[in-house]
């Protein structure tokens, strides 16, 4: 899941080398933390949070396959 | 002397390969601007192919990291790019009312615009879902429309995004006995179908004229 978010985020931002993703795995739930350059925050959040929402939708579809639950946190 | 020999050889080529020299003749007869246009056309085509390949590979990359074994076919619909996914495992990539498909499409458009900024759109479909959805919504609209006429009472068809609402509005647009309207705020709105209160005056005039 970490690779999925990292891949999407890197394609969205102007500074892909500053994309950092970490995954904290729990038994059923894992939290994925996404760090990007300050000026790229808007790119991963989007207008009215639509980009972040779309990433979460894709993430939950992928997690369903693994029968897990994943939460995406964008670190500001 | 050299020149003569060359001319002679060209004459010979012309006799032997008349087809090829015909091609040459056509090309040399063209205006220089025409040639430029052709080069530009060729360049645009290559650029376009490169853009399509790029966004196709991004989608493949996402699907791979989602752990989905699916193929992506790329095509064009006018100015727009169409990406078709086949081999979706049980609607996973479609999601409830196509929400996962919409999310993929949204992300791909953001990525595409960031890189190319040409205003062209990327459409994503899986297992012909988009077409099936349009047909399902048209059938729903017609069925509910009949119900409204029979009961002479309005009803809420459901909560839909703008694209789905548009399909329902368009399907019932031609029905003089019905009206459709969207209610509420935000991305998803209620769609109401109701009996048309009275004949619109403008329409009445049109009929009598």
Features:
heterodimer; A: 76 residues; alpha+beta; GMP Synthetase, Chain A, domain 3; 3-stranded mixed sheet; 3 strands; B: 209 residues; 3-stranded antiparallel sheet; 58% helix; 18% strand; globular; disordered C terminus
Report on this structure:
The complex is a heterodimer of chains A (76) and B (209). Chain A is of the alpha+beta class. Chain A has helices spanning 2-12, 41-45, 50-65; strands at residues 20-25, 29-35, 69-75. In chain A, strands 1-2-3 form a three-stranded mixed sheet. In chain A, a hairpin with a 3-residue loop joins strand 1 (20-25) and strand 2. The two termini of chain A are 20 Å apart. Chain B has 209 residues and is α+β, with helices and mostly antiparallel strands. Chain B is 58% helix and 18% strand. Chain B has helices at 2-16, 18-29, 32-65, 99-116, 129-151, 162-172, 201-208, and strands spanning 71-77, 80-86, 122-126, 155-160, 178-183, 189-195. In chain B, the strands form two sheets. Chain B has a three-stranded mixed sheet with strand order 1-2-3. The longest helix of chain B has 34 residues, at 32-65.
- The CATH architecture of chain A can be given as 2-Layer Sandwich
Give the termini distance of chain A in whole angstroms.
20 Å
Number of separate helices of chain A: 3
Q: What is the fold-level CATH name, i.e. the topology of chain A?
A: GMP Synthetase, Chain A, domain 3
- Binned, the helix content of chain B reads 55-70%
Instruction: Give a count of the beta strands of chain A, DSSP E runs of length 2 or more.
Output: 3
Q: Quickly give the structural class of chain A.
A: alpha+beta
Mean pLDDT of chain A: 95
| Low-pLDDT regions of chain A | none
Which structural class should the secondary elements of chain B be placed in? alpha+beta
């Amino acid at each position: 899941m970490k690779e999925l978010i990292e891949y999407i985020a890197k394609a969205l931002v102007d500074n892909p080398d500053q994309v950092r993703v970490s995954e904290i795995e729990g038994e059923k739930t894992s939290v994925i933390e996404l760090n990007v350059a300050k000026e790229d925050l808007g790119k991963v959040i989007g207008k009215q949070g639509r980009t972040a929402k779309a990433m979460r939708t894709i993430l939950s579809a992928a997690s369903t396959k693994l029968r897990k639950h994943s939460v995406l946190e964008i670190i500001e | 002397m050299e020149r003569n020999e060359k001319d002679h050889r060209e004459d010979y080529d012309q006799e032997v390969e008349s087809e090829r020299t015909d091609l040459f003749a056509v090309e040399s007869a063209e205006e220089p601007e025409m040639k430029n246009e052709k080069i530009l056309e060729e360049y645009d085509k290559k650029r376009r192919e490169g853009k399509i390949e790029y966004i196709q590979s991004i989608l493949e990359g996402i699907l791979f990291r989602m752990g989905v074994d699916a193929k992506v076919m790329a095509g064009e619909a006018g100015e727009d790019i169409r990406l078709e996914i086949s081999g979706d495992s049980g609607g996973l990539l479609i999601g409830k009312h196509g929400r996962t498909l919409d999310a993929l499409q949204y992300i791909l458009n953001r990525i595409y615009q960031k890189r190319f900024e040409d205003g062209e759109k990327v459409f994503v479909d899986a297992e012909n879902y988009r077409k099936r959805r349009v047909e399902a919504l048209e059938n729903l609209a017609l069925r509910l429309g009949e119900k409204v006429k029979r009961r002479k009472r309005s009803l809420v068809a459901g909560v839909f995004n703008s694209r789905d609402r548009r399909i329902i509005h368009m399907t019932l647009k031609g029905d003089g006995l019905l009206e459709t309207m969207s209610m509420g705020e935000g991305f998803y709105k209620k769609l109401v179908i109701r009996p048309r209160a009275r004949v619109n005056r403008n329409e009445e005039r049109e009929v009598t004229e």
